[in-house]
Amino acid sequence: MKKLTASLLVLVLSSSIAIAHAQQKNDTIKTKEIEGVVVTALGIKREKKSLGYASQEIKGDMISDAGQTNAVSALSGNVAGVQVTAPSTMGGSTRITMRGISSITGENRPLIIVDGVPLDNSNVNDIDTQRGAGGRDYGDASFDINPDDIESVTVLKGGPAAALYGSRAGNGAILYTTKSAKKGRTDIQLNTGVAFESIYIRPKLQNQYGGGYSATLPTANINGQTYNIQEYETDASWGPKYDSNLMYLPWYAFDPEFSSDYLKPVPWVAPKNDVDSFFDTGVTYTNNLSVAKSFGDTNVRLSYTNTNIGGIVPTSKIKKDNFSINLNSKLSDNLKAEAIFNYVHTDGYNRPELGYGDNSVAQKFYQFGQRNLDFVKLKDYKLSNGGQRTWNRTAWNDPTPLYSDNPYWIINENTSEDSRHRFFGNAGLTYNFNKNFYIVGKVYGDVYSQNISSRVAVGSQAVSDYTIEKRNVSEFNYEGRAHYNNNFGDFSVNSFVGFNIRDNKMSWLNGTTVGGLVIPNLYNLNNGVENSLATNASIHSSVKSLFGSVSLGYKDMLFVEATGRNDWFSSVNDDQFYPSITGSFVFSKALSIDWLSFGKVRAGWSSIASGGDAYKRLTYTVIGIPFNGAPQYSNPNTNNDPNIRPEVKTTKEFGIEASFFKNRFGFDVTYYDTKSKDLILPLPIDPATGFLFKNINVGEMTNKGIEAMVNVSPIRNDNFSWDITWNFAKNKNKLVELQGDLKNHILTNAPFRAQLAAQVGEAYGAILGTDYVYDANGNRVVDANGFYKASDLKSLGSILPDYNMGFRNTVKYKSLSLSFLIDIQQGGKYFSTTHMWGMYSGMLEESALGGNREAGVILDGVKEDGTKNDILLDAPTWGGTYYNTVDAQNVFDASYIKLRDVTIGYDLPKSLIGNVFQGIRISAFARNLFAWNLANKGIDPENTSYGSGNIQGMEGGSLPSTRTYGFNVNFKF
Prior knowledge:
Residues 49-173 form the TonB-dependent receptor plug domain. The protein is globular. The chain is mainly beta. The protein starts with a helix and ends with a strand. The strands form 11 sheets. It has a 22-stranded antiparallel barrel. The protein is built from 12 helices and 49 strands.
């Protein structure tokens, strides 16, 4: 990998590098972009040259042209310092971090803001789902952002850039600005597209041995005749080698109503229709219609987008409708009004279960199963009486599912539904007293309701069940600001003061049946064998804030800016003040060198505190499930501290950016150093206190790193341009200390083995498990049974990568354009439950031992006395060692090189489209086209995430990653 990466770097640097999204044909325009206006914190537009902190802007076309349906995952590989984990599961969670991890148990994602609205980005996946123990991935609330409406994205990468947002922006902020009508113009556009998704990276399965544990098939006397049968009850594939002359009764031969199969022996051979035939080609249809119109001093834009996603798992689908209104009007010479309103309705049906769960088809296909199953036969999953037909029969004469349901029963009977209705937007007034002084008043709102229901049908292997969950979330921000900007000779001032009142509410209601369902196919909480269980909760928190900023400039080349914000929380006792100071020096103004187009050095410092979750100061009684009709009350596991303090994150950063030769070559480099203290941690305490943990402030975590962008335009003229971007980010994270002798904090456990921990002295997210034992010569040691000896529990590596980088090339020739992005991650680790169980059960290709299982295995190593190992293990015993000996066998490097996207676009000539259209653009795209440098060729490292929180790298049972191909047609009227 190092050699390949170095080669890529040399290639790019030698061919020159340029910002791919800054496609310009005119050097003057290019200069204005470098020195131009960008959106900063609170949505305030500032001159880029005056900023003393790192930020990066991406045009919305880059997102929409690539056919993206997720505005957050679209950032992957495009922004230096931003790490995006975007599993290709339909509508799944997207994990995004900037500049590493700063909190052990708190929020590590950046704040997401759309047109000034702090957008709730909650993830409802429970802990079992996130740790790979089974559950459906319902994604993040940021999925509601409509890629077709995005004008630009500004990424504020650290504390100095985002300090004005206070406690929630300590991890940076991502600002989405949506499209609006332009004064004096009418713009009508129709954008329609289709994308096709097919399975790509998935575990490689063996095709030489069938189900069972014995090398021979058992027999049974049925109706006076002896038949070879199968170990139907065994969910493993250590059975006999395939032999076309060996006849047996398959699992589907025992139902008289299927007369063509009833008691009909078939050959013991590999199936014609294997696992891959189960998956569909996913299809996504996207249609957007927007109308922008200017009426004198009033500008209005209306937009509607319909998105229909069909997943690779049959029956799974998502439908999303986005409707937006963007309005601004000049009411008088001094007064301006503006409002943006968005409504989003998202409907999901049967999002696939992931991880090690009863309804996870990935678990059935790649971990525990029988390799002789033909999926055409599995499609007949149901009897006329409604009962299930599964391959995993308890016995030939007992059709009760023992461990596994038929996968087609799972996707047709054990289904889920989810729905979210969301309203978000803002309304405000701006009054200009004169050209230097104005005031702004705005209200920002984000309100949504989410309903989720799931079913387990009568006749399933698991207890039948019906569960519903309802969530209502709201946030309102009331903000006022007074701005004063002026120039005094060589000096300039840009300043404002303001206030913000934030109000958050969340209510949650859950109901589930108990003891199973009485009447099949009746999904109602009143249909439980016992009284259904209902639970609910509500949360209300608020923050009141005062803030201000002063930026002083000298001769348009030297700038100093100071900001301050004070928050009063409802969740902690003490208020918090967040200062920041930044400075920039535009040295190109002082040097006046022809070949230097632009140059600036900058530095910044900030201190931001996180207020913590609501209700962290007091300890509340837990109401348990009634026992024999008697209510139960108890203490919670964790005792809260009334004097808990916010976590504090201090950031220092330094940067230099420059552009040369009329902006044909440029770079932007930032070094940062952050320190997080007073981390909130549930510390283990004596159970005699009545609690297992107590929330306290402890420890320190640091992040140090570098972000770089290098850009060159090797060719640029009236007809042809070539731009390339290289971005690079390397972060070194370290948990410096916890408390006293405490060396780690366990974040979670994988479903069976391995743990995820914050380990003192190491990078966050250490995977704890057993390693090989080595002798003095570096040989692996085996025990008396011939198994590898296992070490004590130790760190097997961190989930955090060593570095990330991206290369984007964009070539334009007249009306034709081509762009592609290579996304690279080096380092990081993940633990694979699929590899562990797939080897244990004889499912994976490696377990076939090249078709010679009969020879057994002698592990490469030495005995404890130093002699070469000669102990022969039979194949099933060897496979079992992947579970109960060395966990390091199932830990893999998370590096990858991906061709993330390719886009080709063509603007049809005016002579061809006539006067009806102002323009027609046809574009084709492909995403996740190829992946290289995978340590485990059957698992995509990005598919080891089942949530966007701190629990990552615990692969419990993932669906295949996917490739996507599609095209768009854009009509401008």
